[in-house]
Specification:
The chain has about 375 residues and is of the alpha+beta class. The chain has eleven helices and ten strands.
Length: about 375
């Protein structure tokens, strides 16, 4: 009987060894971080618990059984998943808006020189139109050949006291002729010459009913520009000044520093945030973000208002040159961030967390087919 029992026990042990369960999921050893996938699950002799041992360091890993989860747990999973997706969409929108804002800043800096040239040339053109309008008014006035008459003298009554004889000798009809205002419009510029009662004249100009004022802060970039001048004079003026690039303020290149930093950080974020997808999907995101930012930048320049400031006219001409340049730079640095993102994340985890705490972030290694680094003991 004893030999038969011994045979049965050995048979059972052999069957347990040959038909044991295995770990079918990625699981890091709490001792060294070794992936326990495929390791056998055995019964612990003393407590009769299901365990597995790490083949590297021999650490025991208990196989825990959790109770059945309720429906609310699954619902919370759905809520957390939906919240994560919404957070990624918000991050996508913020990334596009940041690139758009930095591109706008670059265009604004680049257009400073050109806007000054446009404002100055337009001011000279307005002065020429105003002088032409005054000459036209004089020609019309001279063509009327007004007949001069002797001043009419009013003899006052003996009992009337005259305080100002000169005013009393002016005929009211002549007074209306002398004082008043005359407006002339040439090429969209309205010049108004106002004659006061004392014979002095003042001249004012307006564009489409809006009065042209003095320079704001001594800068021509805030000068109001008429569409008539833009259509007929702007192109020849730019060519006369040496072309578009000759009038670009090169200081806009300083904006490459913030746009490169922001784009690289964004690329690192997308590389780590999209661990569930392949790397080629993360590569597409910086390109899509840059394209959306470019569309937003270009769409804002399609404003066909009756009047514009010189700065706006200059930006509208440089948006198709500086905008694509900055957005392309953002896409390049974003792709760089995607390629180095997971490596940077792994480096940060290694230098900031102890070996036991790295296990929960082991997906940074296993997702790329790497093993969690083993701790080094002194």
């Amino acid at each position: 009987m004893e030999s038969e029992n011994t045979t049965n026990d050995s048979f059972k042990g052999t069957r347990n060894v040959e038909h044991h369960e295995q770990i079918r999921a990625d699981r890091a050893c709490i001792g060294c971080g070794f992936n326990l996938f495929g390791q056998p699950v055995v019964k612990e002799e003393h407590y009769n618990l299901a365990i597995t041992r790490c083949p590297e360091c021999g650490e025991v890993a208990a196989i825990q059984s959790y109770p059945t989860m309720s429906h609310w747990v699954n619902r919370f999973r759905v809520i957390l998943g939906a919240g994560w997706v919404v957070s990624l969409l918000v991050a996508f929108a913020i990334n596009s808006l940041i690139i758009m804002g930095l591109s706008f800043g670059s265009i604004d800096i680049a257009s400073e020189k050109l806007s000054e040239e446009i404002g100055f040339a337009h001011s000279r053109w307005v002065e020429a139109q105003s002088l032409a309008a005054i000459e036209e008014q004089k020609r019309v006035k001279d063509s009327m050949n007004p007949v001069e008459s002797d001043p009419v003298v009013i003899n006052p009554e003996p009992d009337t006291t005259v305080e100002d004889p000169e005013v009393a000798t002016i005929d009211p009809v002549l007074q209306n002729v002398v004082s008043g205002s005359v407006s002339t419009t040439i090429n969209g510029i309205t010049t108004t010459v106002t004659t006061e009662s004392d014979g002095s004249t003042t001249t004012s100009t307006s564009i489409n009913g809006v009065q042209t004022g003095s320079l704001m802060g001594g800068s021509y970039r805030w000068t109001t520009i008429s569409n008539n001048w833009i259509e007929n004079e702007l192109g020849p003026m730019i060519e006369e000044k040496g072309g578009l690039w000759a009038n670009v303020n090169r200081e806009f290149l300083i904006m490459l520093i913030p746009i490169s930093i922001v784009s690289t950080i964004a690329g690192i974020f997308w590389s780590v945030a999209l661990l569930g997808s392949r790397r080629r999907v993360a590569i597409i995101l910086p390109i899509v973000v840059s394209c959306i930012a470019l569309v937003l930048v270009v769409s804002t320049s399609m404003d066909n208002s009756m009047m514009s400031y010189a700065s706006e006219v200059a930006r509208d001409h440089l948006v198709y040159v500086i905008g694509p340049l900055m957005v392309t730079s953002a896409a390049i640095f974003g792709l760089l961030g995607v390629f180095i993102g997971r490596s940077v994340a792994r480096f940060v985890v290694l230098v900031s967390l102890p070996p036991r705490s790295r296990v929960s972030l082991s997906i940074l290694w296993t997702r790329d087919g790497l093993e969690l680094p083993k701790p080094k003991y002194k």
